[in-house]
Design brief:
Elements: H1 2-11, H2 16-32, H3 43-57, H4 62-71, H5 79-88, H6 97-112, E1 115-117, E2 123-124, E3 129-130, E4 134-136, H7 143-151, E5 155-166, E6 170-179, E7 183-187, E8 192-203, E9 206-219, E10 224-231, H8 232-237, E11 244-247, E12 251-254, E13 263-267, E14 272-278, E15 282-287, E16 290-295, E17 299-300, H9 308-319, H10 335-342, H11 352-355, H12 357-367, H13 371-382, H14 388-393, H15 406-409, H16 416-431, E18 438-439, E19 442-443, H17 454-461, H18 467-487
Parallel strand pairs: 6-10
Antiparallel strand pairs: 1-4, 2-3, 5-8, 7-10, 8-9, 11-14, 11-17, 12-13, 14-15, 15-16, 18-19
Helix pairs in contact: 1-2, 1-3, 9-18, 10-12, 10-18, 12-13, 12-16, 13-18, 17-18
Amino acid sequence: MLKDSFDKKVNDNKSLPEIFADLKKSQKEVSEGTKEIPKVPNTSNIKKKHYKIEEYVNRFKDRDYKFMKKINIHRFKSLDHVTYILKTNKKVRVISSSVIGAILIFVMMLSYTNYIYATDFSIQEDKKQVVGSFEANENTFDIERIIETNSSIKREKKIVKETWDIQYETQVEPTLMYPDGEEVIIQEGSYGKENVTLIKTFENGEELDYKILERDRVVSPVDKVVQRGTNKFLAKNNIHFGDIVYLSAITDLKDKWTDSSNTIMTVGAYTQMQLLDANEEWCKVSIEGIEGYMRTDNVVTEYSSPGIIEKTRVTKILSEVNFEMPLNEPSGLTAGDFRKVLSGNINDRNKIFENNAEAFYIAEQLYHVNGLYLAAIGIHESAWGTSKISLDKKNLFGYGASDGSPYDSAFDFESYQEGIETLAKSMAKYYLNDAGVDVQGELSTGKYYNGNTLSAVNIRYASDPEWANKVYSKMSSLYSRLKLGVFDD
């Protein structure tokens, strides 16, 4: 039986590995069914087993045996429990290896068998009976591995000197200088340094714990400084101070941050300004060099008011249209603007101006003559491209025609584009610029120059004293189409 095998192994004085081998063999026999397990424990055998274990333990020093009884090995749950008790019990200074061996063998016998006592037993001398029962042991252990692992543990302590980094702090400063939530680093942080003396505990070469003995700061850390924006107006418009802003409605420009302060001027809608300062309700702006304050209600950007830049651009162009406007400067219109302005006119039955919108734009870029001024002359002289000269000679301007024989004296052009460029060059070289101005590699002569306005050109260019007014009427009409074309999109 399993009990008898244990008794025999103790009496034979076998080595520990041999005892392990026999125990494994017994365990295998029990699990395979080749060794019988008693259903009811035999009283004499159990008593004998109790005495045999006690006899084995008594071989060691009386001091060690007392310790075994003190820690009550019968309460151990597993070999891990045994190991833990042996390592942590502060009441025992020295435990001999023989005592540890005895404890492990005893617990091993309980843990290594497939059946253990589930309850305490007692021997009644008078009745010679044993009270107790067996149950399956589900917590068997690899004893050899546990003993090998615990016996190989090596612990040591060392005094170590190291240099550690000291973490820097981050200082956050709120400011209205930046949009709400935006952060700007004003000063980068840097780590400090300190020399540290420690006692480190190692187990089998691996660090388990440490205690700091001394710290000596070598370099102090430098705090990181961050400014965090709180300006909701800037965040709403996605801008910063110095950026361009626009007006969505007429607003008064004040000399201070209050409604009761003096009004410098009234600013129209779609005016472009530079933002200098701002809070939630007021902002400081510069309009063509004039500085003042206005409420933020109508101050917007393309981010907060899509299309405002285009509307402002067109508004600025239209604000400069007048009878005395300089004609030797580009109109500021894009090629797309020319197509919008010169397309879809009901009077342009042959679509001559619509089809040559780009030619007017190119002539303006080459000779710095207002393209709508050139188109207005063509519309006036050719009646929207319906005159015989414009149809037969592709001459929209009656260029070269004399009062006596206008048809015969008018120039012939191979294309409308050629006629448009010819008029633009002539205006720049003879009528709109004084002598000495570069005109595509040639110098202007200023032969008929009296100024750069419609009324000045009228003096030498046309015999009709109303010519300037008639041309301006066509120009302003074309400019108004630019406004309608943009704002209705």
